[in-house]
Amino acid sequence: MNLFRYIIALSGLLLTPILAAQDFNAPGISSLSTGGIRSTERNIFSVLSNPAGLTGVTHPGIAVSYIAPYNLHKLSNRSVTGIFPTKAGSFSLLFTQAGYSLSLINRYGFAYARKFGSHVSASLMFNGITHRLNGTDNYGGFFSVIGMQFFPSETVNIGIVIQNIEQSKIAYPDRKALIPVLYVAGISWQPLDELSLKAELEKDQELKPQYKFGIEYSPLDLLTLRGGLRGSPAEISFGTGLKWQFVIIDIGISYHQQLGVTSGASLCFSLMKHKSIKHEQ
What we know:
- This protein is mainly beta.
- It has one domain: Porin, CATH 2.40.160.60.
- It is built from 3 helices and 16 strands.
- The protein has a 14-stranded antiparallel barrel with strand order 1-2-3-4-5-6-7-10-11-12-13-14-15-16.
- Strand 13 (223-230) and strand 14 form a beta hairpin.
- The longest helix has 14 residues, at 2-15.
- The N and C termini lie far apart (40 Å).
């Protein structure tokens, strides 16, 4: 089974550039743990999911993450991001690297997000991407991400994400590969202070729609438990988050019905103690 997964993954990287390009879309660990739900995220890793959620972070911080799809390091995704909130809005920088020496993808991003009153957050993100093949040849492109979050009440968050609306492509010698075009809409409901229920629909322009469901439960101020379910073939996920002083640690695992286990972890440092980092719903 491990050999089968390796052959499938490696052939995707070497033979089909568009499959490799999709790997840079790996979300934050809290998103991974809740079935891949990204549209209603409100933390420093919102820059990987819905940049509008950056308005949920009230103090500067820096974070790193690592995800190993199907526990294959050659498919791994490594990210570092920083955020600087101001009265004029939140600014964030992102660097993501995916793959390995023979097929290496670098993504560079700059995001700006701000609140409009108490019921709307909006964002715009500009991204550059390079794909290095065989350790020598580089190909690249640019794309944008538009994100919005709406808060009709104190307990409901509705998120929308559109990626690469301009239909940008990466030009290879023998073909042009479309950078993934995504349309995502989701909702998060917080019936209790310590409980959040989430649902989301994601449509890649070239793939079938994916349905996702997630839950977050915080029995203690320092501890968050997460779980999720997505799509067909079925993929289940779970994880946990720990907060202490200036540090937040997240760990997540998902299990794909056919391809196996994906695992990841992230570490975030804030300039204020964790109680001042708002993860609003």
